[in-house]
Structures are given as C-alpha cells and as structure tokens.
Amino acid sequence: MSTRKAVVREDVARYARVSPAVVSYVLNKGPKRVRPETEARVLEAIKVLGYRPNAAARALKLHSQEILGLVLSAAGNALFVELANLIEDAAKAHGFAVISTNSRASAARERDHLRNLVNRQVDGILLASVEPEPDISDVTASGLPILLLGNAGSVESVPSVGADLEAGAYTAVRHLIDHGHERIGMISGPTTDVPDGREAGWSRALAEAGLPEGPLVPASPSRFSGYKAAKRLVASHGELSALFTSCDAQGVGALRAVHEAGLRIPDDIAIVSFDGSTEAEYTWPGLSTMRQPVEEMAKDAVAELLASKDGSYVPTHRRYDSRLQARGSCGCVDEDPLS
C-alpha cells in the first residue's frame, strides 16, 4: 500500500508558478508584499494541494508558538465564559490561538496550570486568579509575559486589566439608596488580607448617605454560596430591605433564597449584583447588575500582553468603568427586556 507524499512548500510554489519565498510571504503576511493576483494563485494552490504548513518549523523560524495561555479561576462563571470567548476572538485577530484552563478556585491547581503553560512555551499568559495577589513566580522566572485579569494593579510589575470595583459598587449601592432603601446588606467575596474594592464602594455609599452599614456575609463567588449567604441574611436580619452581591452568580443564588423565604422581589428585598453576565438577563425578575465592559477588556488584555513582549515595555494597569443595567430585581423596568 503506497503512502501519499506530504505536500511541501516547494510543491505549492511550482503549482502557483512562484518561488518558495513568495509562498512564505503569503503565509506569513510578509515581510514583503505580494500582488493580489499572485497571492490568489498561491492560496488556490494551497487549497488544491491540501498543503498544511509545518507548525513546529514555523515556530522555530518566528521564535513564537503563536499560542497564548488563559487561566480562569472558575470556568463555570458566566462572565468568564463570555470573557474567554472574547479573548479567543481578540487573539485570533492577532494570529494567535488560545489554550484555556480552569483552576476551579484552587490556588494549587492555578500554579500547576501556570507551570504547565510555561513548560509548553506559550507566548504569554492571561491569568484570572483565585487570589488577589497571585503567586506567579514560575512565570516571571521564565521571562514569559503575563497579564492579570481582574486584579488591576495588584502586582505593580505586571500589567493588568480590570473593572474599577469600588466605583462600580458605589454606583450600585447609590442606586438602591435612591430607591429609598436604608438597610442594605452585602454578600462579599471571600475574606482576604487584601481589601475588596466592592466592599469599599458599598461602605462609602452608605457612609455618604448617613446610613449604617448593613450586615455583610463573605462567600465564594458561586450560586450556591450566594444562596446560603442570602438565606442566612434573610433569616437573621428582618429589617433588611436590599442586598448588594459581589458577582452575578451570588445574585442568582440570592434570588432563589429570597423567593424560598416567601418574600417579594423587589417589594420586600431588592437586589443588585456586579458583573453584567448574560446569566443575569434570564432570572426572574431580571437581575440588576453592574456591567463590566468585557469586550473592551478582552481586546486590551491581548494587545497589552503582546506589547509586553517588547523589552522596553512599561507595565500598565487599566481600570474600566462599569455601567448599571437596571432590571426588575431593584424595582426598575428592564432597560434591555428580552424580545
């Protein structure tokens, strides 16, 4: 049985009646420009012959795998799913593929993923960390570029992109205050040594309005944790009239807990969350939330990571404003009702 000979660059060149160098220019989009009609002949030859460039040889020549690593802290989080898809799109626009991993809220698993991506010699890593100040020593020791997602400015020497958490939380709580609420509790993130901007925004909004801080319950960023925290708050704080949750997943869980308690939303308890994931659109009532500009964040994150490969690059820390998407859970008419 005969084995079909692999098609090589020279075969494409002969078919298209060009030099092998021109085939390379077309495949690599440079360094020299190729006339449109010549490029069309090369692309037709590639299609007809079924030519597949040798990825390993290309990586050696370009000193690049053209692959980025992405480490998420919770891939089940609806916002992270959206962010991962947008990062993949942004990377593709630059000619890069993405390897996505999930630490499942484990710092140890996160470090394992980082080491594995370093060993795979990806071109850079985007990290949405479990921890506010992540251990990235393996990555920095390798010289590989890394960018933090959501940890804006937490590591001065590492570029980052993330929402302005304090400003967003302040806006959310001010909105609840404007609805007449005076006892506003919060379901925050897990307790850490690093102050949470969302908690600071909640506290500042209440202080400026001359209101006492409502009860605060720390919880992990999940539906079940939000559900348990809200059940605890509803059972022990009958005076509570509103809740601010640090993420949409917690907010979804809180909605269920309030419903189960036989309370009306928003008449008895209003809820506003933080993230702006698509998940918030499909609750009942619709979950009011602070929408992070994930499209812009994804594009900027990839661009910053690739720029940081330059030896003269100075790390930047980009913070983004969030926008209130008011829905039924806070007493507003949905701004973006489903049609």
List keywords for this structure.
Rossmann fold, Peripla_BP_I, Lambda_DNA-bd_dom_sf, transcription regulation, LacI family transcriptional regulator, single chain, DNA-binding transcription factor activity, 42% helix, 434 Repressor (Amino-terminal Domain), 339 residues, alpha/beta
How would you describe this structure to a colleague?
It is a single chain. By secondary structure, the chain is an alpha/beta fold. It folds into three domains: 9-53, lambda repressor-like DNA-binding domains (434 Repressor (Amino-terminal Domain), Orthogonal Bundle), CATH 1.10.260; 64-163 and 294-320, Rossmann fold (3-Layer(aba) Sandwich), CATH 3.40.50; 165-293 and 324-330, Response regulator (Rossmann fold). Helices cover 42% and strands 16% of the residues. The protein has twelve helices and twelve strands. 42% of the residues are buried. The mean pLDDT is 89.
Entry summary:
42% of the residues lie in helices and 16% in strands. With 339 residues, it is α/β, with parallel strands linked by helices. The strands form two sheets. The chain has a six-stranded parallel β-sheet, sandwiched between helices.
